[in-house]
Amino acid sequence: MGGSCSICCRTILAGERIHGFLDGRDEKSVCELCLARAERLGWRPGDEPEPEPEGHGHEGRLRRLFHRRHRRPGAPAPASTAPAPAPPRRRPLPPPVDELGFTPFERAVARFNSSEAGRTVAGLTRTLGVPRASVGASAGAPDEVRITIAWDLSWYQWSVDIADELSPVTELGKGGEVEQLDAAAKQWNARVEQDGKLRLAGERAPSR
Fold first, then answer.
1. Residues with Cβ < 8 Å from 93, sequence gap 6 or more?
2. Helix (H, G, I), strand (E, B) or coil at 27
3. Per-position DSSP letters for 71-110, written without gaps between them
4. Phi and psi (nearest 5°) for 123?
5. Where is 122: in which H helix or E strand?
6. What is the pLDDT of residues 97-107, one digit of tens each?
7. Domain ranges of the chain
8. What is the pLDDT of residue 19?
9. CB-based contact 45:68 (threshold 8 Å)
10. Residue 106: φ, ψ to 5°
11. Helix or strand or coil: residue 46?
12. Would the pLDDT of 205 be above 70?
């Protein structure tokens, strides 16, 4: 086990690849499914070298070594002149209910059903049968809704950005074992109808 993901807080599974990132000087561990969100947050990959404010290559290393050896005891190290990374812009939280009376989950489901991802699920439902489904908030991104569709031997996850109606529904990941999903993704609070449309629990399918 390798701890948990710093974004979705999901426990890292044995053998799963972990990516190291830096938020300033804080080390972060990020799973495969959250790489895009780590980049949007402005985190820097852990294997990316820091800027060298005092020159590059051999000459810069000699200059830094000279200053370290000749600095007076107790004297502060020279401040880095590298500009601090700009904080990532965050959009405000979506309202619990919009002006038409729809919740964020209902808006996300409607977007999903009209997307290419929704058509993919409809096709898989005709082949594999009716799956289980969950709709929930995406950890670390309050304006995104995570949709999980799972059959016995396969699962898929998508993200719907409800703060940007023009952004596409994006795939977060897929796998072959339902046990790979975190506990929140296995809260089966939605269903897929025979027609392949995703609906929240308690929502009635439109009459024909």
1. 142, 143
2. strand
3. SPTTPPPPPP-SPPPPPPP-PPPPPSS-TTS--HHHHHHH
4. -65, -40
5. helix 116-128
6. 656 678 889 99
7. 1-89, 104-200
8. 85
9. no
10. -65, -40
11. coil
12. no
Model-level pTM greater than 0.70? Answer: no
**Contact of 96 with 166, CB cutoff 8 Å:** no
Question: Which residues, in sequence order, are CB contacts of 167 under 8 Å at separation 6+?
Answer: 161
Contact residues for 100 (Cβ-Cβ < 8 A; gap 6+): none
Phi and psi of 31, rounded to 5°?
A: -80, 170
153 contacts: CB under 8 Å, gap ≥ 6: 176, 177
Judged by DSSP in three states, 115 sits in coil
Q: For the segment 73-82, what is each residue's pLDDT rounded down to a tens digit?
A: 555 555 556 6
Higher confidence at residue 103 or residue 138? 103
